[in-house]
Amino acid sequence: MTLQNKIDFAVVFTVNKANPNGDPLNGNRPRQDYNGHGEMSDVAIKRKLRNRLQDEGENIFVQSDERRNDAFRSLKDRADSVEELKKLLSDAKADEELAIKIASDEWYDVRAFGQVFAFKGTKMSVGVRGPVSIHTATSIDPVDITSMQITKSVNSTTNTTNPGQKTSDTMGMKHRVDFGTYIFYGSINPQLAEKTGFTSEDAEKLKQALITLFANDASSARPDGSMEVNKVFWWEHNNKIGQYSSAKVHRSVKIERTVDGLATSFEDYDIQVEPLEGLDVQVYDGL
């Protein structure tokens, strides 16, 4: 069933000695704003959601190359694998709405987040506007970042001058957030859901992906257990436009530090949800 009511959500998660989202323009240090608050981009969050949904058997268009489950090495190749879509994109006068429907029916992330189909060699560009919008995650308090020098025990290539000496590529840096509690918000728009065919069942799958956001996400920068979803707040309105604006719903989550100085655990925060008349909130703990 196509989604009938607007949905808002919020996710609180903690980072403990990990790099949640490195900035490639800043030596891959964890992202921070000008006030020192940690950040995790909406793009990084959507990547993790796509990975979780792919783990659960959903067909995903924007797959990471290292974990793809098909033979396609580019988005164009994946789009061309759907013959009817390939034919439409090759015709400048083709039915754009039909192309949107085919792509949305085929891939979960297209009907959820949207996608631009504009590739070299195609004659029609198609933009799909998805109903699911997600904000950048921001830490409640400023975060401390620790950097450490690391070395490899062996050269990547033999040192031609002196094979017994280490080369410069054995030296590197590793960065981490010592501890931070982050929150991000999102919403699902029913009007846009109608256009892509995003259903109530799709919304339920997204909720479960949020609850298990960091499952199967371990790496050297994010060891298993270093990132944890603590709370997921889920509001379902009783109409398409929503009883309240998303901004007001998101502001209803109140988070306060209960200790002096730096927080070192999730228990150092008190989280309350301000009641909104006629709008109930479902609260889920992360797994």
TrEMBL record:
<protein>
    <submittedName>
        <fullName>Type I-C CRISPR-associated protein Cas7/Csd2</fullName>
    </submittedName>
</protein>
<dbReference type="InterPro" id="IPR006482">
    <property type="entry name" value="Cas7_Csh2/Csh2"/>
</dbReference>
<dbReference type="GO" id="GO:0043571">
    <property type="term" value="P:maintenance of CRISPR repeat elements"/>
</dbReference>
<dbReference type="Pfam" id="PF05107">
    <property type="entry name" value="Cas_Cas7"/>
</dbReference>
<feature type="region of interest" description="Disordered">
    <location>
        <begin position="19"/>
        <end position="38"/>
    </location>
</feature>
<dbReference type="InterPro" id="IPR013418">
    <property type="entry name" value="CRISPR-assoc_prot_Cas7/Csd2"/>
</dbReference>
